[in-house]
Structure to design on (600 residues):
């Protein structure tokens, strides 16, 4: 896919995100906007997956698990725009009885979701387990996971990291959304992660880095990561992003982690984001 | 009221035997253990199916997450560790990744309750039934003896959905028939009686059998129900029995708060209010000691059941 086409989809996804959270005056736009380019690339170019016929088992499909479930708006939008469910359903986000729960869940059967997430730190374990079953089933496809950088403060992440390397789970590609911010402020102020690359290396992972807002960087890194699968080590990509990317007043601060724009702010945001595929 | 005894064994060995059998009959069963393979008697499965056995190390949170992930692709994961580390330590992982996500994970928990013994209160969980039965989508099973633990282990593989299976460490008499058919949610009526209904689970079923002899000697006719499934609870069996007996004693190796007795109370309060007495641990932690010393000290022994029965019967005639 041309970068221009990916950028067009990403612009529409960003419009979806701000409209969804603004409509219910709740949700998490900051991290959603920051991971838009990555998830757009993942679903529209990288993964082999079947949006038309979703199956929970996902045999012979690549799987994706969102560990930092609070950025559900971007995932929902990308899933809908990929054909997992009608785009119009984005208008039900966080509303009573909706399949689009505040945090992703399997409870109401939304196609594309295989595991609830929201309580942080659990998605890497889930992804590693699913990856091991792919091996047992002689299924050569790949498991992808996404994690917030703040989420890495949860101990379970490191339990899973240790386990995956010790067991040579080399069919998983985990990506870290390295935006440097969490709810209470900058990560370095709240609880520094130290040298993240060295930490993952020390845990036995292959470490790659990319610019999460540059499709050339995303493409070449994701292709390199895929080429590294099957070589005895799990793979992690530290992805540099900007929280709130694409909406000027949301960038450069942790303030928009979990705050929705009001009507006026929404208008200002939409003026910066081209409508390419038609709003829901 | 004589019970045929088929020897003496620990319930955890029943789990190990059941799991080993599943290894042969169910190619989709996988097992995970957090560094307690010997204690959980999972070695036979491990030896016969090394590619389907996953040693997670001392990292229970990761173990639960791995198990949840392994259901995707069609596997049926059985996790094994002590009851304390199977529940309290990983409650949120079970809540989100297993129960809420409705994953087909079997959480198998050994060394539950006081009868873990000398290791003391850090390991003697008495709250696990309560925690697990509060979770939507969770089935909670506490088999009574070695044979029943083996039968329950095999039965839960065929049940789609999350299950908590609780068993223990000490060697106890075996009284369930080796070829009994275990049905989830269907209580076993062990003796019929007219004066009192004793509803017990786990090791307390044997303690209740011991109590039956003493009760018989003083002319009390007790109906004993082995309530091996706490959730879903066999309400029909409870109501049918109390319609006859008019009072209830519940017996469990668990905290009174949140346990089997509380579940039974909910049924009685709504549908058939009758006197109920509880044989359970009353809002206290355990301590080191032999299993039988602890059951005596914390009042969950057979004499405690006899006393509770007398009290329940005496309350039947009080007109409020």
């Amino acid at each position: 896919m041309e970068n221009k086409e990916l950028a067009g989809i990403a612009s529409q996804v960003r419009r979806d995100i701000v409209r969804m959270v603004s409509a219910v005056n709740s949700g998490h736009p900051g991290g959603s906007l920051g991971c838009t380019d990555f998830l757009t690339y993942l679903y529209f170019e990288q993964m082999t997956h079947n949006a038309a016929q979703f199956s929970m088992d996902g045999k012979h499909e690549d799987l994706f698990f969102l560990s930092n479930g609070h950025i559900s708006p971007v995932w929902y939008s990308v899933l809908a725009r990929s054909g997992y469910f009608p785009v119009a359903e984005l208008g039900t986000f966080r509303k009573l009885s909706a399949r689009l729960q505040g945090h992703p869940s399997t409870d109401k059967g939304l196609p594309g979701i295989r595991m609830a997430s929201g309580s942080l730190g659990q998605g890497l374990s889930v992804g590693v387990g699913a990856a091991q079953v792919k091996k047992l089933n002689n299924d050569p496809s790949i498991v992808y996971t996404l994690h917030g950088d703040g989420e890495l403060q949860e101990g379970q992440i490191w339990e899973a990291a240790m386990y995956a390397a010790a067991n040579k789970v080399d069919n998983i590609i985990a990506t870290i959304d390295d935006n440097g911010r969490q709810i209470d402020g900058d990560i370095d102020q709240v609880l520094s992660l130290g040298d993240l690359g060295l930490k993952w290396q020390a845990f036995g992972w292959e470490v790659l880095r990319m610019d999460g807002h540059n499709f050339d960087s995303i493409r070449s890194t994701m292709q390199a990561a895929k080429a590294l699968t099957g070589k005895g080590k799990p793979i992690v990509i530290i992805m540099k992003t900007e929280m709130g990317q694409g909406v000027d007043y949301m960038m450069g601060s942790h303030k928009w982690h979990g705050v929705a724009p009001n009507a006026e702010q929404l208008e200002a945001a939409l003026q910066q984001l081209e409508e390419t595929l038609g709003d829901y | 009221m004589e019970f045929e005894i088929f020897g003496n064994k620990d319930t955890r060995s029943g789990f190990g035997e059941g799991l080993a059998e599943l290894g042969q009959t169910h190619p989709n069963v996988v097992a995970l253990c957090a560094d307690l393979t010997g204690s959980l008697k999972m070695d036979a499965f491990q030896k016969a199916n090394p590619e389907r056995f996953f040693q997670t190390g001392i990292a229970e949170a990761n173990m639960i997450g791995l198990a949840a992930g392994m259901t995707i692709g069609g596997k049926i994961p059985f996790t094994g560790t002590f009851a304390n580390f199977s529940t309290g330590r990983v409650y949120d992982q079970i809540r989100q990744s297993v129960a809420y996500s409705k994953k087909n994970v079997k959480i198998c928990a050994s060394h539950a309750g006081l009868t873990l013994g000398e290791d003391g209160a850090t390991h003697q969980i008495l709250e696990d039934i309560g925690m697990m039965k509060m979770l939507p989508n969770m089935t909670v099973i506490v088999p009574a003896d070695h044979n029943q633990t083996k039968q329950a282990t095999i039965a839960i593989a065929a049940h789609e959905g999350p299950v908590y299976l609780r068993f223990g460490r000490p060697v106890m008499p075996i009284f369930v028939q080796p070829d009994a058919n275990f049905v989830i949610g269907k209580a076993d009526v062990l003796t019929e009686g007219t004066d009192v209904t004793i509803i017990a689970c786990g090791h307390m079923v044997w303690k209740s059998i011991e109590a039956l002899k003493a009760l018989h000697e003083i002319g009390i006719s007790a109906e004993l129900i082995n309530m091996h499934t706490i959730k879903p609870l066999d309400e029909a069996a409870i109501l049918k029995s109390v319609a006859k007996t008019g009072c209830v004693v519940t017996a469990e190796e668990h905290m009174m708060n949140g346990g089997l007795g509380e579940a039974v109370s909910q049924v009685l309060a709504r549908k058939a209010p009758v006197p109920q007495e509880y044989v359970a641990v009353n809002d206290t932690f355990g301590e080191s000691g032999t299993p039988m010393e602890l059951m005596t000290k914390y009042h969950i022994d057979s004499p405690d059941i006899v006393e509770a029965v007398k009290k329940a019967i005496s309350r039947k005639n009080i007109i409020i």
Q: What stands out?
A: The longest strand of chain B covers residues 248-255. The mean pLDDT of chain B is 97. Chain B touches chain A at residues 30, 51-52, 54, 56-57, 59, 61-70, 72-75, 77, 92-93, 95-97, 100-103 (CB under 8 Å). The longest helix of chain B spans residues 11-25.
